[in-house]
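Exam revision sheet. Question 4 asks you to relate a sequence to its structure. Input first:
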Amino acid sequence: MEEFWPVPDVLAFLGGRWRVERVVRDLASGDTGEFEGTTVFRPDPAGGLLHEEAGTFTWRGTPRPAERTLRFLPGPGGTADVRFADGRPFHHLDLTVGRYVADHPCAADLYRGEFTVRDADHWRTVWRVRGPAKDLELSTDYARAG
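Answer key, structure tokens:
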């Protein structure tokens, strides 16, 4: 049985710079892609943290720059309310037991994310996307960078 590392305050835990490695599998076609880069969680002037990710995504042998921004707002009891950069809701995040499952409906597809924390410097997300438009699995490993 896998053990998880409890996180009493998700925003305090995430703050700083992380190395990111992601594998994207298209389960319908069998194609696989990879993302390598960094994520920085820095204070958001509006409150909480800005999640700024940048790196290179390689799909079908073609590398291209990729980036995204999310907002992590303070939630009750050390949790976070995760939103897209434009403020739309994404999901709740509660790592107080070191593991959390979140759902995000997107049109007719459903994103289900499992978040696990291994220790103070390593955590992981696995998003499974199912629906008429997508059949994907995205596995991302985060390691604290200095």
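Marking note for examiners. The chain has a mean pLDDT of 96.
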